[in-house]
């Protein structure tokens, strides 16, 4: 079905030219622009796909209320965002689509007094994915134990023969091999729980920075943007380090030449089915080629990769580790700017 101006009159407002709208055609996040009066201006391909693949649907001129399966929640949230000129979250919304009502969190962000950006955060993947991932990881862990032992022996031999500066790098290799050996040992036991202890997140992120710089094949510009107010968090430091390294490795393999490691304290944020009063957010921001739109719905599933030589385990493992800690992993992406955000609840 195609909607046009005859059925839905153009909104009687002045809006920016399309080129000025931050609505990426390549973003994996479903997004739309909403005009004052709650009229849709445009939608990106990810949103059209999420609503049932209605490619021919023009969207411009449709009333926002038509998408709400629980009216008037969506219209009320949009009006609040316009009036208060701040981002408004609509948690656990129900949205009408061509394939039935679907659940999602919605974010409505004012771009100016006349236009809102609507972002749709769909429900997480099915629990069966975690089971498949665990089975894949246990097989992987079994296979790498032998090569890890050989790497450790070689690194120790080098450590004795190198000068002081190079010994530091050899010691880093030994420490990482030991950490991976311990990690693979835990993965071999089904149902293994993370070993939680209070930790300074920035110390873990700094170790990620050191490993990212040492492991990059090409010169890497690395920037840090830390929130000093972030409190200690109960985490399994080795597991969290592994998750963040996977995100960094994913960025480097996507052609990133600049990397930003950022931390923030988030208040009253929804993680899964509950709201955390306080959470630590760790962002890995890169300037690589972005996430392919075709992988938007399966990106975190095991054995799914956008590269022919990719294992498809890195992001799946990173999300599993986040969820082991009661947190979650999400992303927003367009060519030249991709952000993976890992959320961890902070204990009271």
Which labels suit this protein?
single chain; 348 residues; alpha+beta; Beta-Lactamase; Heat Shock Protein 90; 5-stranded antiparallel beta sheet; 5-stranded mixed beta sheet; 12 strands; elongated; disordered N terminus
Low-confidence stretches: 1-21, 124-130
Strand content: 25-35%
Structural class determined from secondary elements: alpha+beta
Query: C-alpha Rg, in Å?
Result: 23 Å
With strands numbered from the N-terminus, the spatial order across the biggest sheet is 2-1-5-4-3
Number of helices: 7
**In the CATH hierarchy, what is the class of the largest domain?**
Alpha Beta
- What spatial form do the alpha-carbon principal axes imply? elongated
CATH architecture of the largest domain: 2-Layer Sandwich
Bin the helical content.
Answer: 25-40%
Mean pLDDT: 77
CATH superfamily of the largest domain: Histidine kinase-like ATPase, C-terminal domain
Characterization of the model:
The chain has 348 residues and is α+β, with helices and mostly antiparallel strands. The protein has three domains: 18-122, PAS domain (Beta-Lactamase); 126-192; 194-348, Histidine kinase-like ATPase, C-terminal domain (Heat Shock Protein 90, 2-Layer Sandwich), CATH 3.30.565.10. Helix content is 34%, strand content 27%. The chain has seven helices and twelve strands. The chain has helices at residues 45-50, 73-84, 128-161, 164-187, 201-215, 237-253, 314-324, and strands spanning 31-35, 39-43, 88-97, 100-110, 115-122, 197-199, 221-225, 233-235, 258-271, 274-286, 328-334, 337-345. The strands form three sheets. Strands 2-1-5-4-3 form a five-stranded antiparallel beta sheet. A five-stranded mixed beta sheet has the order 7-9-10-12-11. Strands 6-8 form a two-stranded antiparallel sheet. A hairpin with a 3-residue loop joins strand 1 and strand 2. Helix 3 (128-161) packs antiparallel against helix 4 (164-187), helix 5 (201-215) runs parallel beside helix 6 and helix 6 packs antiparallel against helix 7 (314-324). The radius of gyration is 23 Å and the shape is elongated. The protein starts with 30 loop residues before the first strand and ends with a strand. Residues 1-21 and 124-130 have low confidence and may be disordered.
